[in-house]
Please model this.
Amino acid sequence: MSRKPKKGYFVKGHFVAEGSELDLELKAELKGTWDSSRTDMKRESDALQKLGEDLLGLRSDLLARLQLSDKLLDALAEARRITNFEGKRRQMQYIGKIMRKLEESQVAAIHAAMDEQRNGSPTEKLSVLQAEQWRERLLAEDGALAEWLDSFPDTDSQQIRALIRQARKDSQAAAAAAPAVAEGETPAPRKTSRAYRELFALLRAQISGNSAQPGADAADEDEDEEDA
Model:
């Protein structure tokens, strides 16, 4: 009497009987791979939907630079209009669905735009650093003003002189009013004066080659210091 053939399958030319130890290992491995893939896909989908939410707060100039499809731009505009929680949630799911169809290069460009909005472009970062360095020199060295005016002749000389003079006075007054610090203690940071911030804004505007009003950048710097 012939034996009843075992149920099974072949893997790379080798027979694997159902219920065997090898069969269980292979099925566990296959299930784990599938579960892992599904988890990865869900994680990627959630990340793209979150990126779509971030697009709602992206500056208009950066958003225009991305050249997104009208379909996505219309969906974003609709999401900004919706105030109902459930309606907003469904709209963001729709935006996430559109986001999943973007090319990798488009997703990378969106991430770059978000980073630029948070941290500034390389050019902006450089202008900030240069303005800070010049401000410290102008406040510490009397001869630095002549160098500055030689490099940036369009600067209002009366305005920059007045700001330097006032910033120095404010710094001296703040130092005199600061409480004594015991040995080993770290002194509390002093709030900078308006003249100090406006001097920075003037310098940055000249370095950047624009005619922005100093007060605007000074307010921005003040906000950054308060957040620090």
Q: What stands out?
A: The CA atoms of residues 8 and 166 lie 89 Å apart. The chain is about 70% helix and 5% strand. The two ends are 87 Å apart (CA to CA).
